[in-house]
Design brief:
Layout lengths: L5 H26 L6 H11 L5 H21 L3 H19 L12 H16 L6 H4 L9 H31 L7
Helix pairs in contact: 1-2, 1-3, 1-5, 2-3, 3-4, 4-5, 4-7
Length: 181
């Protein structure tokens, strides 16, 4: 008889909560559910935030959030799911970073919390109350954790770096000369 412990139950709660929130965020972007903009609206917003092309950025962010969140909730392919969700949330945090840390002021607190939780689940694994465990961890091997986090980290750094450059160039281009010499 299998007896589950506090760790298994705690990981299940973390996976269900974090995965559910991420899946809902992705559904807003992909389908317009829960008051979201769907691909078109989110794509326009992404373009305005400096993520270009906006429509493809919306699809990738939506898939990373919805897919990563759903897989985290199920405890399936946990390293890839956690890494994908964390990468999407780092992209969101980059948008909010100029507003400081706290979410009440429009900061990156919430996105960073989701990113860290998703990355933490990728590292710790899903626990025994998961599909990964039921399937013999076929898509949750030890080597997959650093591989998933490294690939996602590199891709996220490139995407956020390009976005930050676009935002910086737009700000420089839009500035007017205050004094003529």
């Amino acid at each position: 008889m299998t007896c589950y412990d506090r760790e298994d139950l705690g990981l299940l709660l973390l996976r269900l909560g974090t995965g559910g929130v991420l899946a809902a965020h992705g559904a807003q972007k992909l389908f317009g559910w829960f008051g979201g903009g769907g691909i078109e609206g989110t794509g326009a917003a992404m373009e305005a935030m400096g993520y270009s092309p906006g429509k493809q950025s919306a699809v990738l962010a939506g898939l990373s959030e919805a897919g990563g969140g759903a897989l985290l909730a199920l405890g399936l392919a946990t390293p890839a799911a956690g890494a994908a969700a964390a990468g999407a949330m780092v992209g969101a945090a980059a948008v909010h970073a100029p507003n400081g840390f706290f979410a009440a002021a429009g900061g990156y607190e919430y996105a960073a919390s989701l990113a860290l939780t998703a990355a933490g689940l990728a590292v710790t694994g899903p626990g025994r109350l998961s599909l990964d465990h039921a399937l013999g961890h076929a898509v949750n091997r030890g080597w997959m954790v650093p591989a998933a986090l490294a690939v996602t980290g590199a891709a996220t750094a490139v995407v956020v770096g390009l976005r930050n450059r676009r935002v910086r160039e737009a700000a420089e281009f839009g500035q007017e000369t205050l004094f003529d010499e």
